[in-house]
Amino acid sequence: MRIVLDAMGSDNCPVPDVEGAVQAAREFGDTVILVGDETRIKAELAKYPTAGLPIEVVHASQTITMEDTPSKIVKGKPDSSIHVGLQLVEDGKADAFVSCGNTGAVLAVATTVKIRRIQGIHRPALSSIVPFGERHVVLIDIGANADCKPEWLIQFALMGSVYVEKALGRQNPKIGLLSNGEEEGKGNELIKSTLPLLINSGLNFIGNIEPKEMLEGHADVIVSDGFVGNMVVKTLESTSSMAFAQIKNVAMQSIRGKLGGALLKPLIGGIRKKFDPFEIGGAPLLGVNGVVIIGHGRSNAYAVKNAIRQARLAVSGDIVNTIRQGLNRPTPTPDQ
Amino acid sequence: MRIVLDAMGSDNCPVPDVEGAVQAAREFGDTVILVGDETRIKAELAKYPTAGLPIEVVHASQTITMEDTPSKIVKGKPDSSIHVGLQLVEDGKADAFVSCGNTGAVLAVATTVKIRRIQGIHRPALSSIVPFGERHVVLIDIGANADCKPEWLIQFALMGSVYVEKALGRQNPKIGLLSNGEEEGKGNELIKSTLPLLINSGLNFIGNIEPKEMLEGHADVIVSDGFVGNMVVKTLESTSSMAFAQIKNVAMQSIRGKLGGALLKPLIGGIRKKFDPFEIGGAPLLGVNGVVIIGHGRSNAYAVKNAIRQARLAVSGDIVNTIRQGLNRPTPTPDQ
């Protein structure tokens, strides 16, 4: 398997990106193709013992800056690491593309000028993989499409279901529609219009699901529009970060707190991980003609390695073809 | 001041409702009018030394059950505690109505058959008061209106601003529009259409605000549609409940954990409170012709007393008239 890593992706690139690639090449044995500023990548690679490791470097001459908007990048930086990396996938020279860079830019380049969406997919969607309850749950969409139509949400459900089944290895995934109540009649217009379509979709749809049930792991796939999904993921991350930070802060302010904190810290680590996006490393952009995994900008090497792991799982599970086949299943046509 | 309490409101009614009313009458000295099943209320009152306390009882013959939908209650139970209680406010016999009952039913009765909306208000909205950062923040709407128009959100901002200024006593409240990014151009269609109107509203609008900034207390009023607001509040509550429950659970599983937990528990209490809806007790339904405070169904006596406290603050601040006056200020007319 050959996986492209955007070496210019993370906030501290190329440091954690290159280190994560080295770790992944060593641990998984797959070829990692580092794309970006060749000089900087090679200087970084020289820090590690990489003899015999399946690591390649492909140069990309243009660098994306903080000021570049996604639309500027699409047309104005055709030799960015995102363009060059996705081109390798489009040309069949690599099986997957992983980036911890600008999500909007990856999304825009992938959907408009490289690989592009799968024929029949209304809109590709961003997912997030979160360890709720005792297992990983896929949230889709978490930000690609702020305003959605019911038919798009049905496809998000299908794509999420395929990912859980093929990449995460769980049969017949349960699909929940994120809403403010479980009863029919709850939700906004989008939810109310989507509900009957999901019921008749042939997917293993378990109904509307509230944030509490989502966190308890009642469903394997949580479907929402990209605005609500983004709000929910951000609220979840911010709340847990703040709660743990405040506990730590209070614990540091007294002898009593320091002692209690020292005793509890190793026990709490597992809980902290449940809310930690780095644990999974990255999540797939689904609905495009290739495996694309997007990680957090703040990723460290561990997170980069885990993002590459997600790419391996997605390639092994043949998710792109499975989504294509899923679109050909008989599904109800919306009335509108 | 005379405050009506729906004695049949909470999940365990009338037990915590009556106890909270007794506590409020003793602590605040205002008259509390308990409305509901007179026999049950009086039996409950008999448990406490209430001699000399300003407590009255008004009978309501109909009881709301779990099976009653809000629309059934509106027309089918004209002598429910919600109807009778709101009628006292409409008739000027009381200054405020407090209920820990069915939110949808209170909303429906208040907006359609009793007191009704303030003239010029497009849609009344539910708020939530949450102790973010070092101060209380008003979120509006958190569930009354799942689908909103930009003009409605402008009024939510106005009403939230009035509440913070008049009931919570903070001058020139900062308004934030809840979105998935602070930059202009972020958000869904509703957010993008609302942004220019808020900028020109004459309110102290500070721009789009993300969940993280919301939790850090950057704004005094957070505006959103009722669906997103509801999702965000529920995610926040569920995440913090789950995080604290899991910490407690882990702490109980070993001697080490129990010791650490015992040391930290008194220090963490203050943090727990920041995410605890009972601490505030209730939040106002804004935009109707009277002070209406809605508490949690799970309220205990402490939460009920705190909900009555919110009603006192709202009455003292004359929020209904201030909202009315605010509507008469020159505000921009939306183009559409």
| CATH architecture grouping of the largest domain in chain A | 3-Layer(aba) Sandwich
Kindly report the name of the CATH homologous superfamily of the largest domain in chain A: Isopropylmalate Dehydrogenase
Percent range for helical residues of chain A? 40-55%
Order of helices and strands of chain A, N to C?
EHEHEHHEHEEHEHEHEHHHEEHH
Major beta sheet summary of chain A: 11 strands, mixed
Question: In percent, how much strand structure appears in the residues of chain A?
Answer: 15-25%
According to CATH, the fold-level topology of the largest domain in chain A is Isopropylmalate Dehydrogenase
List how many beta strands of chain A DSSP finds.
11
Count of alpha and pi helical runs of chain A: 13
